[in-house]
Design a protein that fits this description.
Number of domains: 2
CATH topology of the largest domain: Thiol Ester Dehydrase, Chain A
Strand content: 25-35%
Shape: globular
Order of helices and strands: EHEEEEHEEHHEEEE
Helix content: 10-25%
Number of strands: 11
CATH superfamily of the largest domain: Hotdog Thioesterase
Oligomer: single chain
Length: 255
């Protein structure tokens, strides 16, 4: 099977490439379609390895290797690989929505002077689809993960904009993947470690997430091996149920 995919500029992370979580979720969606899995993204975990920056507004080719594996290419350049994989992750108990909301002001997403790529921009990634504070709520997720007293990691109190709901009122799977992205990097920033780009994301959606819910997204550090920084993230709905989890590899300097 071969098809194509275009990541629109509004789904950027850095100024000129896609948000790692969103593009990973979009590629995972193609893998689900290849195998006939549920369109809401629930079911098996998918591991997406990002091999090169994902271009914006440019057509890429999605090549199905088999029902469990696909490649994404732009011409001869391998952009990403997606495959089914088992995901075993110990997920900590999240703080409350109220406690996460009270801590939001300490998020790197809202601190000035952290980003040199967007002059005058607010926060670590001012125009990022996930955590960008300079993006309107109808066009970006505005997931502002911050340290919360009594929690070993970071958490965001997130109320999605109605613009992101599908016809049934749920968040599309790629949006869920996107919201799981930045809290992993912010968990390391909370420990005084500034990582590089997302290199791999493995995620599993356990149940659909209502866009109308008050959602808590958490991120925590798992460990460091050389330049590989491992983080976990998870999303909880208004009833306190864990709806989605991810394990991430962020590429950074060796300390």
């Amino acid at each position: 099977m071969q098809s194509s995919i275009v990541i629109e500029a509004k789904f950027r992370g850095p100024p000129d490439s896609g948000n790692g979580g969103y593009i990973s979720g979009a590629f995972a969606g193609h893998l689900f379609a290849l195998s006939g899995a549920p369109s809401d993204g629930t079911g098996d975990a998918v591991q997406v390895t990002l091999r090169a920056p994902t271009p914006l507004d440019i057509e890429m080719q999605v090549v199905g290797v088999d029902a469990d594996h696909l490649d994404v290419k732009q011409g001869e350049v391998l952009i990403a690989q997606a495959e089914r994989i088992e995901l075993d992750l110990d997920v900590p108990t999240p703080p409350s929505f109220a406690d996460a909301a009270a801590a939001a002001g300490e998020s790197p997403a809202l601190m000035p002077g952290l980003n040199s790529l967007v002059p005058g921009g607010l926060g670590f990634h001012p125009i990022c689809f996930c955590c960008g504070a300079d993006v309107d709520a109808s066009e970006g997720l505005r997931v502002f993960a911050a340290p919360v007293e009594g929690f070993d990691g970071v958490a965001a109190a997130w109320q999605p904009d109605a613009a992101f709901a599908d016809d049934e009122g749920f968040l599309p799977s790629a949006v869920v993947w996107a919201a799981l992205d930045c809290p992993g990097q912010f968990a390391f920033m909370n420990d005084g470690i500034r990582t590089g780009l997302l290199g791999r994301m493995t995620a599993k959606i356990l149940k659909p997430v209502a866009a109308s819910d008050q959602i808590v997204v958490i991120g925590w550090c798992i460990g460091i091996e050389g330049k590989k920084h491992f983080a976990g993230t998870a999303m909880f709905n208004q009833q306190g149920e864990c709806c989605a989890v991810s394990k991430q590899v962020w590429i950074g300097r060796q300390d």
